[in-house]
């Protein structure tokens, strides 16, 4: 039961983007398409999971004076794995995400979960937490990417939407940084009104 609660809280109750407003840099920067949002979410989930497992497993071996630097070294290791794997096997995605994959190291979501959860809980609960937070982050980035891609390009995951292209004129602003702020603001407003009702 605790594992399920650890997982589910990241999807809605403590969603990193929609509730805690963490990871705003990649949320605003890479969500101009659903593919980019999904890929960034998966990369972040991998780092959350790897970092959570290792940091939870070694929490009793690390002196408190060097806990944060050691967490960063572990996180940087998993970010490097993601970065090199993406460049080797998915070069188009690596190019579109460019510098944002290496910036996962300083994403406050990653370090925050290692510090507030993985460093205090056993490995199995850290896995559930990391998967839930990663799934919530991926869901948020992908859904924001879908909104921006539909309105900005008239496509979803790069495919045109039947019936939409005949009458819809894409809004160029939606794929620009201003469109990221507008989309996020509207989505957060809708979700907050749902949460309060």
UniProtKB/TrEMBL annotation:
A Gene Ontology biological process noted in the UniProt record is: electron transport chain
**Chief place of localization:** membrane
**What the protein does?**
Part of a membrane-bound complex that couples electron transfer with translocation of ions across the membrane.
What are the record keywords, sorted? Cell membrane, Electron transport, Membrane, Translocase, Transmembrane, Transmembrane helix, Transport
Name assigned to this protein: Ion-translocating oxidoreductase complex subunit E
Species name? Halanaerobacter jeridensis
Q: What is its EC number?
A: 7.-.-.-
UniProt-listed HAMAP family: RsxE_RnfE
Residues that span the membrane, as ranges: 37-54, 66-82, 88-110, 130-151, 171-191
Is-annotated flag, keyword Transmembrane helix? Answer: yes
Question: From what superkingdom does this record's organism come?
Answer: Bacteria
Q: How does it assemble?
A: The complex is composed of six subunits: RnfA, RnfB, RnfC, RnfD, RnfE and RnfG.
Q: Which GO terms describe its cellular component?
A: endomembrane system; plasma membrane
Q: Give the record's membrane topology.
A: Multi-pass membrane protein
Gene (UniProt): rnfE
Provide the protein's localization.
Cell membrane; Endomembrane system
InterPro entries given for it? NqrDE/RnfAE, RnfE
């Amino acid at each position: 039961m605790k594992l399920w609660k650890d997982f589910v809280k990241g999807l809605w109750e403590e969603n990193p983007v929609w509730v805690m407003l963490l990871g705003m840099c990649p949320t605003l920067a890479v969500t101009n398409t659903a593919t980019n949002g999904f890929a960034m979410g998966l990369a972040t989930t991998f780092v959350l999971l790897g970092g959570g497992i290792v940091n939870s497993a070694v929490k009793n071996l690390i002196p408190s004076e060097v806990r944060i630097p050691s967490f960063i070294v572990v996180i940087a290791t998993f970010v490097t794995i993601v970065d090199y794997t993406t460049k080797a096997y998915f070069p188009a995605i690596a190019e579109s995400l460019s510098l944002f994959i290496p910036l996962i190291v300083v994403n406050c979501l990653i370090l925050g979960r290692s510090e507030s959860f993985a460093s205090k809980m056993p490995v199995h609960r850290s896995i559930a937490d990391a998967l839930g937070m990663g799934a919530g982050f991926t869901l948020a980035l992908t859904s924001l990417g879908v909104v921006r891609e539909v309105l900005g390009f008239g496509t979803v995951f790069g495919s045109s939407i039947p019936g939409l292209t005949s009458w819809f004129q894409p809004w160029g602003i939606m794929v620009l940084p201003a469109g990221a702020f507008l989309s996020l603001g509207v989505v957060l407003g809708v979700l907050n009104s749902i949460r309060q009702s």
